[in-house]
Write a structure and sequence with these properties.
432 residues, alpha+beta, seven-stranded mixed beta sheet, two-stranded antiparallel ribbon, 17 helices, PLD_domain, Mitochondrial cardiolipin hydrolase, RNA endonuclease activity producing 5'-phosphomonoesters, hydrolytic mechanism
């Protein structure tokens, strides 16, 4: 923060100082405040910046007003994410607002240089935060090692063998972790639902038949320990065997279950005929109502998902944590071209990530989107189509979720469920 303050002082001193006028011989009285305190109190961050930048001299030379504006800005910033990437966007927003008030290119370039310097400082902080912490061996571990050397010969050999098995198992798990990272193509896997990207190109799925290799299994109980001079044989006996990995059978492509622009009646017709149990009275559903679950990875599940989106005639309201799958984006673009009204709510950090589609859909195709501005995640994953059909579940609209992750969705036309989800979407749209 000290470096940033120095940069700001340098930027203000780089411009020629205005001539000082005699304080006691002002020809005209100071104008009344052009800022409406009540309006500022309820302004969003962008509006607050715009209004205060236009009256920056008034704010800086009126202490009570300065404190008041500072309080409003602090409240706005508290609602934002405090990650380095989001802070960079906030700084850019502030600098852009300041540039709009400048008349000369020289003044604008000074502000742009300040922005560059601040972002450089933040990038250094981001790299420092990302560096792995150094770990120290615990004294307890050292004591255990020293104590392991004192027992009887047989116990000593057993302890060494057990330690060798554990070390070898740890090393193997670590190697597999590194292989996973290399296959992903990233230096590290982050906390997001969608940081993982499949490494395969042929569409086949690799599904482990056993628990993940990261889950270590206890070594098998060894037979009576007898001192052996042949160390190579011990290593061969203790080496964990790699378990085979089964491959999923590649699914054939399927035609769309529901034609584009078919409408909600076609959706009901499909589910009641193709999945009668999902619409039967035995399942507790009344006539023409259905509730069907789908699971991923599965081409049938993805086909059902896109078919319902394609059926839209009037509206699609999307509330999704991550939207990065271009195939899904194409479905929304096609619906927009049919004059379907589409609204998207997504997470602010996900929307700013590489490959995110929300900004592109708005800029190139006129599909509006909004994001949260909170420290938490906007983690919903649902869509309401024509106010008649609901898609909801764990499924993010990403290729990782579609082709690799274990995900689920529920598609239903139960009126009460749709009413509640539509009300939640409308409330979030108003809030954001």
């Amino acid at each position: 923060m000290g470096i940033i303050r120095d940069l700001l002082r340098a930027s203000t001193s780089s411009s020629p100082a205005p001539a000082h006028e005699p304080p006691k011989h002002e020809p005209t009285p100071q104008p009344t405040s052009s800022l409406d305190a009540a309006e500022l109190k309820h302004a969003k961050f962008a509006q607050l910046l715009e209004k205060t930048m236009e009256s920056s001299s008034e704010v800086m030379n009126t202490e009570p007003l300065k404190e008041q504006v500072s309080g409003y800005m602090t409240s706005c910033l508290k609602a934002k994410s405090h990650s380095v990437s989001n802070t960079k966007r906030t700084v850019q927003q502030i600098i852009d607002a300041a540039i709009n008030t400048r008349s000369t290119e020289k003044e604008k370039d000074v502000l742009r240089w300040v922005q560059f310097c601040v972002e450089t400082c933040l990038s250094q902080q981001e790299q420092a935060d990302a560096s792995p912490p150094t770990t120290k061996k615990s004294s307890t571990s050292d004591e255990n090692i020293s104590n392991a050397d004192t027992p009887r010969p047989k116990k000593k050999v057993a302890a060494k063998k057990e330690a060798a098995v554990k070390e070898e198992s740890d090393s193997e798990c670590q190697d597999e972790d590194e292989d996973d990272v290399e296959s992903v193509g990233y230096d590290k896997i982050g906390a997001s639902d969608d940081d993982y990207v499949p490494s395969y190109d042929d569409g086949d799925q690799q599904v482990p038949t056993t628990p993940s290799p990261r889950r270590k299994t206890k070594p098998k109980k060894e037979k009576e320990d007898v001192p052996d001079d042949d160390d190579d044989d011990d290593e061969d006996d203790n080496e964990p065997k790699k378990k085979p990995v089964a491959r999923r059978k590649k699914e054939e492509d399927q035609p769309a279950f529901i034609l584009p622009n078919a409408g909600s009646k076609a959706v009901v017709s499909y589910f009641t005929s193709a999945h009668p149990l999902a619409a039967s009275e035995k399942s507790g559903l009344t006539s023409n109502h259905f509730a069907k679950s789908y699971f991923f990875p599965s081409k049938e599940s993805f086909n059902a998902f896109t078919s319902v989106l394609n059926s839209a005639q009037k509206t699609i309201d999307v509330c999704i944590f991550s939207l990065t799958d271009d195939d899904v984006a194409d479905v929304l673009i096609a619906a927009k071209q049919r004059n379907v009204d589409i609204r998207i709510i997504t997470d602010n950090q996900q929307a700013a990530g590489v490959g995110a589609d929300a900004e592109r859909l708005q800029k190139d195709h006129g599909i509006p989107y909004k994001t949260d501005h909170t420290t938490g995640y906007m983690h919903n994953k649902f869509a309401v189509v024509d106010a008649k059909t609901l898609i909801n579940g764990s499924f993010n609209w990403s290729k990782g979720a579609r082709t690799k992750n274990r995900e689920n969705i529920m598609i239903t036309n139960l009126p009460y469920c749709i009413k509640e989800f539509q009300a939640q979407f409308d409330a979030l749209w108003e809030e954001f």
